[in-house]
Amino acid sequence: MKSKQKSVFPKNFMWGGAIAANQAEGAWNVDGKGMSVADVAKFKPDVDITDYVAQWRTTQADIDEAMKTDDVIYYPKRHGIDFYHKYPEDLSLFAEMGFKVLRVSIAWTRLFPNGTEEQPNAAGIAYYVNLFKKMRVLKIEPLVTLSHYEMPLYLVNHYDGWVSREVVGFFNRFTKVCFENFAPYVKYWLTFNEIDSVFRHPFTTVGVVEEKYANKHDAEQAIYQALHHQFVASAVAVKQCHEIIPGSQIGCMVTETVTYPETCNPEDVMLAYEDNRQNHFFTDVQANGEYPRFIKKYFKDHDLQVSFAQGDEEILKQYPVDFISFSYYMSMVQSINADKREKVGGNLTTGVKNPYLQTSEWGWQVDPVGLKYALLDLYDRYHKPLFIVENGLGAKDTVENGEVHDAYRIQYFADHFKQINSAISAGVEVMGYTSWAPIDIVSASTSQMVKRYGFIYVDLDDFNQGTGKRVRKDSFYWYQKVIQTNGESLFEE
Question: Is the pLDDT confidence value at 1 over 50?
Fold first, then answer.
């Protein structure tokens, strides 16, 4: 017996999952790969898992220390889940679930170990060709992120990361090689993963080591300069993609941070509005092709000298993205009395606790309705197709007699899928959904394995102990049915 609600997911809706090279592949020094910023990301078991500032922080001393060791225990993104070698097995499991799409990223340092080479590393190209061929055989559409927290460490040490204009050229050499070599297999592309994360973790996102700057003003100026260079590089990539791969589509990727006012006090409402406005800035540039006036005014008011090269504004305007993709994990609350309120954390920032929402073990507040809000808000603002490319629940799973009973994860996804369905019913054009992450991988923020997102359990712990065996969780079979019925099973009683 079915409820009155029904699935309105379109027939061509792309169900699937999302991973990143730096969290899954491992093989950090194999087949000519160079070091990336991910290879110096340290597991910090003595740091509070909800202290995301401390978890993400990377100093020059941290970089120097990491470069002297081949350790993979305290640098777990170096081992990942060995997707580099086990991708045929993992892709087969995704195909068994019925995936229509898999979001992956290309490790820049597999193709250009330092980022500055004139010619790409043939072994790196061969790896991704084989990966995409296998996906095609399994009828899984690749959705490829060009930059997912994986910039070459050499560019950090020798060019101050994206602060240097030269990095734009290096990156677009890399993107051109990607488009030319993977054109037969890849139609859908993304430029920069969560480009707005530049202020949350500037080292990971743009290679800026803040301590190198004399003061906060200079560091902020450097971060905005690096961001501008990424905006330009993204527009150039859009141009390249359309010219090299006819019929391709390329999107931006941002973190959708819905912020609510704590009360109807106009001051609370305005604080929330300003947060949402700031969040839209990153999408405005890539989707509308220009900086919003309030950001330019901010530069002027705070004496931030962000250099625009001749032609930058023109290329931003000429080459906006085709669609908008985003991650959504949690909503936030703003209050004029924030200093007197209980706080919660997340991969985004610390905010006022919302008493109407549940909170995960890592301090993330679960808000399915916020996903519908985000979809409506983005579609009304930009009138472009939307793609949800990250959403999921990090939790500790227990293996019992070789099985993982994760009803909590099933409930999480069911609640969010129903809100997507509702947004589509309200007229929003949603291309697809890729869960983060369909198989357990190393956490981006805390570099843990026990913070598990997958429908597939991977037998590894935080200290890289375990067999690496893959185990289907209960949620595996549940998601399989959702895909098979194109969402109809969500409304079965």
Answer: no
pLDDT in tens, 261-288: 999 999 999 999 999 999 999 999 999 9
Q: Is 274 a catalytic residue?
A: no
Q: Which fold has domain 14-491?
A: TIM Barrel (3.20.20)
Q: Which of 25, 141, 194, 256 is catalytic?
A: 194
Find, among 461, 462, 373, 474, the residue nearest to 414 by Cα.
474
End-to-end Cα separation, the chain, in angstroms: 6
Amino acid found at 480: Q
2-6: long-range contacts at Cβ-Cβ below 8 A with a sequence spacing of 24 or more? 2/488, 2/491, 2/492, 2/493, 3/491, 3/493, 5/418, 5/421, 5/491, 6/488, 6/491
Say which residues have a Cβ less than 8 Å from residue 153's Cβ, sequence separation at least 6.
34, 35, 36, 37, 39, 40, 63, 67, 109
> Is the torsion defined by CA of 485, 490, 491, 493 positive or negative?
positive
* Residue 95 burial by Cβ neighbours in a 10 Å radius (0-12, 13-18, 19+): middle
Instruction: Name the residue ranges covered by the structural domains of the chain.
Output: 14-491
Give the CB-side neighbour count of residue 119, counting CA atoms within 13 A: 3
**Distance in angstroms (rounded) separating the CA atoms of residues 135 and 366:** 32
Residue whose token pair is 């705070």: 302
Q: What is the pLDDT of residues 68-95, one digit of tens each?
A: 999 999 999 999 999 999 999 999 999 9
**Residue in 390, 400, 429, 492 annotated catalytic:** 390
314 is an active site residue: no
* The pLDDT of residue 197: 94
CA distance 95 to 90: 9
pTM for the structure as a whole = 0.95
Backbone dihedral angles phi then psi of residue 415, each to the nearest 5 degrees: -65, -40
Q: How many helices (H) and strands (E) does the chain have?
A: 16, 18
pLDDT for the residue 437: 93
